[in-house]
Amino acid sequence: MTFIARHRRLLTLACSAILRHRTRHVSILLVYTALVFLFASVVFCVEALKREARLLLQGAPEIVVQRLVAGRHEPIPAELVEPLRRIPGVQRAAGRLWGYHFDEERRVNFTLIASEDPRLAPRAVAVGRGVARLLGAEAGGRIALRGRGGEEVSFAVAEVFPSASELVAADLIEMPQEDLRAFFGIPEGLYTDITLRVANENERRVVASKVRGLVPDGRVILREEIARTYEELFDWRGGVLLAVFASLAASFLLLAWSQAAGLEEEEKREIGLLKAVGWELSEVLALKTWEAITVSLTAFLLGTALAYLHVFAAGAFLFASLMKGWSVLYPRFALDPALDLPQVTLIVSVAVVPFLLASVIPSWRAAATEPDRLLRQA
Amino acid sequence: MIALEQVTKVYSRGRPEEHTALAAVDLTVGAGERLVLMGPSGSGKTTLLSVLGTLSRPTSGRVRLEGRDLTRLPEKALASIRRRTFGFLFQEPHLVRGLRVIDNVLLPALPVHEPGDGLRERALSLLGKFGLERKTLARAETLSPGEAQRAGLARALLLDPQVLIADEPTAHLDTARSRELIAFLGSLAAEGKTLVIASHDPLVGGAGFVNRVLAMRDGRILEGSSSR
Question: Which residue in A6, A16, A269 is closest to B94 by CB distance?
Fold first, then answer.
């Protein structure tokens, strides 16, 4: 008999065994599917957020130079722009103005940044979707921010940023440089930081070290460091969730183990019967492995499919706030659907393999028992 | 054909509930012999059948099949011997619930059965012989006790074993069904099969095909057991 034909028969018998013991298998399947769903949701969410952050950072400057005084971020003199631009490998150097504005009434921080878009008229702003939602603003409307002296400063909303940029632009308010200087009281000749464009990836670290020589009290931030920070942040948030789910998963595995270890009388009798009629241990184990694989794969496919829909179609509503950030301005954006082999391998190895072991080992212990004893016990 | 030499079987050894089910039993069963073991419950009949049919290893002593010592064979080899040499008819038919009768009968061959090897036809033929031709597609749990016992007999005979081991085969059957089953066993004896049967039932002990009856008590075969 061919290997495939033998295992097809064993699989058929395994499926009928699952149906025979459906009460036990259905309850395990439901809990198992829920766990796979939660775990796969976190994996999908973390990977999609990291991918999203990487895509958005592609447009960011390769190097940012900030000035530190007593360990605190201070404005940086504009006269440093030109010397930095002359460093070999630097294509462009520009001063950047930005700052945080705390809205007392709504208990939320906005990020205000000077726009490089010349089309943005004085006293006009472009805002992120989070800001628009919170302030009830839309293009053509107006928003008011409380200035340094406590007076309300009104701006026309020229644009609301597209949703694709919401991960990093949810809390963003972009305005002309002059307006921002006036709003924060930053005099001419100072910037918040200086950005450098360095196209050649191999030159960035060399450029960074030269910047440190020119700006000894500066902090040099590479884009890849920001990307890494994002990745670590999302990994950490995912890790927190997974740590919570790990205890659930451990409980489930214990349940699966105890259920399998205390095999029903009927199952023990069946194993004893199979051995009595001449089945080898390996054949009994193959049958029990097929049973476990069938339950596992069903839970894996169901859980993964539900997680895919949850994350990519329903915006990961169960834990989106935790994954995207704790701010009042939760970014709302649709994650791009993606499923790759490492993610699937991770889900299979964490969700499927332990269950297989928890199911098959007790069956192996039963199958290694003399058939006479199994038939008598039952 | 099969020889038990000083076979002892102790259950729960070393525990307070330790129980000696077989005590230094010597027994030889020749090819084609029709042997019935009789004795009260707890006399060791079922244990003797289990040891003889390799369902259980003796605590001490040897079991030989055609001169080959089975006592220390690995489990894989014993499984192969069980599949090729022995057919078992248990006191309870032990049919798998939820499976069709035909699939229950084919169960011993499921991992090795080849399409076109005639086993399915043999299974159908055996079911026909035992009056179950209309029950082949029925679920096992829908059979009456008599039908289930006959389906169990069909399963035991599927791979044409040399030895049929039957443990209290008429225990759950009424007299008419018992006579019917005994007649089937007689037909197997006529085909030259070796039969080893444990039973309380005088109908079995007195059946015409039986050529030896042994009495057991307290794990021993009593002297003065009869041969015909």
Answer: A269
Q: What would the pLDDT profile of B188-215 be if each residue is shown by its tens digit?
A: 999 999 999 999 899 998 899 999 999 9
pLDDT band at A166 (very low <50, low <70, confident <90, very high): low
The answer to whether the Cβ–Cβ distance between B96 and A270 falls below 8 Å is: yes
Specify burial of residue A140 (Cβ count, 10 A radius: 0-12, 13-18, 19+).
Answer: exposed
Superfamily of chain region B33-57+74-227: P-loop containing nucleotide triphosphate hydrolases (3.40.50.300)
Residues A201, A336, single domain; the answer is no
Per-residue buried b or exposed e for B5-23, using 16+ beta carbons within 10 Å of the residue's own CB: bebbbbbeeeeeeeebbbe
HEC profile of A33-45: HHHHHHHHHHHHH
Q: Could you tell me which residue, B41 or A162, shows the higher pLDDT?
A: B41
Residue A181 and residue A304 in one domain: no
Nearest-CA distance from B194 to chain A in Å? 17
- Residue of B49, B75, B92 to mutate, testing the A interface (most A Cβ within 10 Å of its Cβ): B75
In chain A, residues with a C-beta closer than 8 Å to the C-beta of B98 are 16-17, 19-20
Q: Of A181, A197, A223, which residue constitutes the final position of a domain?
A: A223
Q: Nearest-CA distance from B126 to chain A in Å?
A: 17
Which of B57, B82, B114 lies nearest to residue A276, judging by beta carbons? Answer: B82
Q: In this predicted model, what pLDDT tens digit does every residue of A279-333 receive, in sequence order?
A: 999 999 999 999 989 988 899 999 999 999 998 888 888 877 776 664 544 555 5
Quote the CA–CA distance of A19 and A141 in Å, as a whole number. 62
Highest mean pLDDT among A49-53, A110-114, A229-233, A349-353: A110-114
Helix intervals (H) in A58-80: none
pTM: 0.70
Look at phi and psi of residue A198 and say left if phi exceeds 0, alpha if psi is from -120 to 50, else beta: beta
Residue of B nearest to A7 (CA): B111
Whether chain A has a CB inside 8 Å of the CB on B202: the answer is no
Q: Which residue has the tokens 């329903």?
A: A314
Question: Which residues constitute the domain of residue A146?
Answer: 63-223
CB-CB under 8 Å, B113 with A279: no
